[in-house]
């Protein structure tokens, strides 16, 4: 497209005086945002003007088109803005691929350069600051992540996790009133140096983690007791001829992630298709741009929007048959093994699922008994089948159960915790101390913290003495976490997003670029 500038006068960039006297004309080539499925290049006629200001060093200057493009740029502002938005959301490589799909030829390093030119907004000093570390390279290089906990906004990334660096930042950004942090000495000393008047709050999540580690240490000295509890707890199936029915490996986290990814792609494709269609694209062109068949384009245009986030499938790995399984196994063990008979028995008991589900379970039982999985005649005297066992009661599982909120334990887990306390006086002490600490933390009973500390320090359990000593050294911050509702949960969430950004940039991104995407893309 050939375009000419029509402004009657231009302003000298040096002395700011206006001029109407044209010196010469020349042409600029600007890449612009595409039109339908055409790429668009502007052949822009611009002029040079004389500057009449006698004291100005510049005699001749070119007219500026501030709304169109930067003085020496080869892309229009609106194109640059789009590329920056793509780069912020996707990073270099994926961004370049999408830009290509949208008709803009750009390489990933150009895209990253566009990002570098984006200005960072001035830091608005937060009142409540969350701080945590993140791994640049796992185990080798760490940085620090700062988050405004009131507005859930990322503030900045720091290049390392040294106390001095954090203290420096705090000194340059006065006004932080509360800092929520982990239990490490690094950030504690950073706040002490950089914002000594700020209230420090130890994050509750980390405190609970520390407690679980303490319990783990105690329990690992009482493994015989744990074994005994596990033994009492096991269902008494004394019959020697018992085969455990192992549940088939259910949908793994990986499979679920794959499922989510496919869905995500579908959502994005549909959005893109609908957007292009609204802009008047014909279906052939859409199919080409999106990279799907024309049939798919028609289908996606017709059907209602996919939900942006798939509702989490709570039934993953569970079966409609589950409630009937104990009864089912009884029938099976008593010799009723004909599928159609079993199905009709189940239906009499209210089963509403398909007979395929039943067949699948039958083949599971058969394979547990060492029979070929095909349904056929089977001998009457078979070993009996029963349920899989509960996981073994390790020190780690026991500490996990004690730390778990009571309302979240099922009645078996609750019984295990109670047996734990009944098995040995030391275990009882550990459970009591843990319960007491969790109560302070979860019910915000900071004023009772001192009493708890004394009990723990005077207990006979070495791990709890050490835990209590550590808490005593950090007394104010720990007590603050028992009195406020401030939590570092937001930081954890943003830290996960940061991991994704880092992966997208394939480790090529320096801190400056990562910081820009982290702060601007939210
Ligand atoms: Zn001038």
Structure report:
The protein is α/β, with parallel strands linked by helices. 48% of the residues lie in helices and 14% in strands. It is built from 21 helices and 13 strands. It has helices spanning 77-90, 92-101, 108-116, 163-172, 185-194, 204-219, 223-233, 253-278, 283-290, 294-302, 325-333, 339-348, 355-368, 395-403, 411-423, 425-442, 449-457, 462-473, 475-481, 489-504, 511-520, and strands spanning 2-4, 10-11, 18-19, 22-35, 38-50, 60-62, 128-137, 141-148, 153-158, 178-181, 199-202, 242-244, 384-386. The strands form four sheets. It has a five-stranded mixed beta sheet with strand order 9-8-7-10-11, with helices on both faces. Strands 1, 4, 5 and 6 form a four-stranded mixed beta sheet that branches. A two-stranded antiparallel sheet has the order 2-3. The model has no long low-confidence stretch (mean pLDDT 85). Bound molecules: zinc ion. The site of zinc ion has 8 residues, from loops.
């Amino acid at each position: 497209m050939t375009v000419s500038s029509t402004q009657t006068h231009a302003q000298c960039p040096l002395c700011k005086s206006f001029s109407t006297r044209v010196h010469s004309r020349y042409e600029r080539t600007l890449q612009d945002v595409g039109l339908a499925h055409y790429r668009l290049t502007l052949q822009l006629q611009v002029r040079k003007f004389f500057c009449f200001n006698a004291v100005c060093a510049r005699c001749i200057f070119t007219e500026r088109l501030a709304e169109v493009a930067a003085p020496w740029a080869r892309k229009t502002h609106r194109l640059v803005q789009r590329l920056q938005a793509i780069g912020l959301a996707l990073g270099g490589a994926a961004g370049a691929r999408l830009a290509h799909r949208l008709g803009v030829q750009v390489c990933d390093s150009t895209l990253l350069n566009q990002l570098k030119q984006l200005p960072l907004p001035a830091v608005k000093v937060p009142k409540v600051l969350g701080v945590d570390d993140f791994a640049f390279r796992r185990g080798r290089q760490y940085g620090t992540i700062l988050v405004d906990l009131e507005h859930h906004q990322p503030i900045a990334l720091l290049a390392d996790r040294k106390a001095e660096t954090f203290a420096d930042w705090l000194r340059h950004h006065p006004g932080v009133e509360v800092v929520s942090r982990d239990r490490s000495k690094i950030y504690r000393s950073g706040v002490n140096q950089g914002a000594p008047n700020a209230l420090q709050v130890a994050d509750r999540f980390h405190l609970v983690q520390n407690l679980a580690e303490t319990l783990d240490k105690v329990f690992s000295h009482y493994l015989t007791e744990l074994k005994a509890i596990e033994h009492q707890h096991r269902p008494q199936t004394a019959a020697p001829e018992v085969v455990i029915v192992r549940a088939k490996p259910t949908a793994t986290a990986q499979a679920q992630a794959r499922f989510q990814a496919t869905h995500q792609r579908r959502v994005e494709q549909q959005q893109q298709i609908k957007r292009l269609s609204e802009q008047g694209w014909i279906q052939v062109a859409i199919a080409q741009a999106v990279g799907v068949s024309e049939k798919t384009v028609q289908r996606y245009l017709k059907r209602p929007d996919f939900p942006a986030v798939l509702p989490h499938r709570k039934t993953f790995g569970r079966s409609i048959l589950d409630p009937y399984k104990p009864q089912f196994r009884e029938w099976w063990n008593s010799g009723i093994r004909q599928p159609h008979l079993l199905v009709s028995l189940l239906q009499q008991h209210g089963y509403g699922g398909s007979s395929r589900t039943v067949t699948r379970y039958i083949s599971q039982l058969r394979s547990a008994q060492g029979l070929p999985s095909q349904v056929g005649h089977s001998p009457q005297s078979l070993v009996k089948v029963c349920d899989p066992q509960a996981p073994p009661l390790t020190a780690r599982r026991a500490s996990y159960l004690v730390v778990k909120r009571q309302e979240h334990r099922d009645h078996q887990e609750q019984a295990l915790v109670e047996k734990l306390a009944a098995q040995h006086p030391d275990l009882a002490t550990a459970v009591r101390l843990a319960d007491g600490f969790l109560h302070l933390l979860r019910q915000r009973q900071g004023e009772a913290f001192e009493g708890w500390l004394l009990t723990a320090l005077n207990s006979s359990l070495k791990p709890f003495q050490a835990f209590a000593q550590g808490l005593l050294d950090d007394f104010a911050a720990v007590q603050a976490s028992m009195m406020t509702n401030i939590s570092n949960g937001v930081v954890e969430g943003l830290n996960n997003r940061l991991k994704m950004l880092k992966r997208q940039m394939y480790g090529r991104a320096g801190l400056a670029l990562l910081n820009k995407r982290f702060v601007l893309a939210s």
